[in-house]
Specification:
1 helix, 73 residues, single chain, 37% strand
């Protein structure tokens, strides 16, 4: 079963089946232009994981989201 990656920047979504593919690049460009952060949902079948892009340069589960951990572009 293929995963779907849904990136969100200020309510605008970008979808892709590749983790750091075209949708990621478009989301990153928008986040830079709007000086904000990126969240994403990883969907695999009935399983949905909510994540945010952290200052460490990786996506973390939203339960670890704290102001100082969120990467602002």
């Amino acid at each position: 079963m293929e995963k779907m990656f849904i990136y969100n920047v200020n309510g605008t979504t970008f979808e892709d089946t590749e983790a750091f593919g075209k949708a990621w690049k478009e989301a990153k460009e928008m986040a830079k232009a709007e000086h904000t952060f990126i969240t994403r949902q990883v969907v695999k079948g009935n399983e949905i994981r909510n994540e945010f892009y952290a200052t460490a340069g990786i996506f973390l589960n939203e339960r670890f989201m704290e102001k100082d951990k969120v990467a602002i572009f």
